[in-house]
Every structure is written in structure tokens, then in C-alpha cells.
Specification:
Length: about 170
């Protein structure tokens, strides 16, 4: 499905990946780590948020595909997508902080766009309005904001927006 450039690879999530996924979620929630509470309370809050996110994904996207992103066999992130008859929904992409800024998410998004071209489907996503880094990555990849509220920008990318080579 995703044609990634080696040594970046992806595989479906296994039950044995839960420890990594827990670490990845904690790593991606610097906002919660900064709350002035006892460490145990912060960890409990993070665990509850992670459970809430997982339940929301299961309920909203019961057929979602959960992928682990690997660099030379080492887990460094995750990708969650839902492919339906209308579009490809990019539900979540997360990369551990040590690997951020190295083009991992950009490469995954480009591979997902190549797949969307094959299926002739747009890609849609929601991103927090205050997530400047993610917004920059998505805009650079050709996504545009379709609607906004106080928390999220709904963004989309369409295969028709790609200049296809002539003949």
C-alpha cells in the first residue's frame, strides 16, 4: 500500500507494540507533561487521554488501519488511516521526538498521496489549530484548510490538485 523509501518502512500494529505506543503517546503530549500536578496524576491523565483517543478512533473509524513506522527495523512512529469509498482519512500520524524534523512524516504523507492518486481519492484530516509544526507539514504537502472551529482545522488534499505529466 505505502511505497516508502528504505530504510523507512511500515507494518500493521501487533499487540506486542503496546509498550511502544504508550511511550509514543506520552512523548507526543508535552502539553500534559507541563501541567503542574504530581507526576502520578499527570501519568494517569495521559493514560486516560490515550484511552479516550483509542476509543474515539474505534467508534468513529471501526475499519481504521493502524501502522507502526520503522526505520531500519526500529519503531519510531505510528500512522492511523481509514480508507473508505469517499476518501482516505489521515486519523493520526505521530513520530517520536528524537526523529521529528527529519522528514519522516513528510515521506509518509507523500507515500499516502501516491496511494490516493492510485485510488483517485482525496485525503482528509483534522489538525489542532495550535499545532504549528503539523500545519506547516500539511500545507507544504499541498493540503488546504476546508473549515475551522476553535480547536481544529479540517484539511484536505485532492489528487486533482497534482500536476500530472503530459502524455
Amino acid at each position: 500500500m505505502l511505497n516508502l523509501i528504505s530504510p523507512l518502512n511500515a507494518r500493521l500494529v501487533h499487540a506486542s507494540d503496546q509498550i511502544f505506543l504508550d511511550m509514543l503517546y506520552r512523548d507526543s503530549r508535552a502539553d500534559l507533561l507541563a501541567i503542574p500536578l504530581a507526576p502520578a496524576a499527570v501519568q494517569q491523565m495521559i493514560a486516560m487521554q490515550q484511552m479516550s483517543q483509542a476509543m474515539g478512533i474505534r467508534e468513529t473509524y471501526p475499519n481504521a488501519q493502524h501502522w507502526i513506522l520503522l526505520w531500519d527495523g526500529e519503531a519510531l512512529g505510528r500512522l492511523v488511516i481509514d480508507i473508505n469509498d469517499i476518501d482516505i482519512r489521515l486519523i493520526d500520524i505521530a513520530v517520536i521526538s528524537a526523529w521529528r524534523g527529519k522528514g519522516i512524516a513528510t515521506q509518509v504523507i507523500r507515500a499516502l498521496q501516491d496511494y490516493a492518486i492510485q485510488l483517485d481519492r482525496p485525503i482528509s484530516l483534522a489538525v489542532q489549530c495550535n499545532n504549528a509544526d503539523a500545519l506547516h507539514v500539511y500545507r507544504r504537502a499541498g493540503f488546504s484548510v476546508r473549515s475551522s472551529d476553535t480547536l481544529f482545522d479540517q484539511m484536505a488534499w485532492h489528487p486533482a490538485s497534482v500536476d500530472m505529466p503530459l502524455g
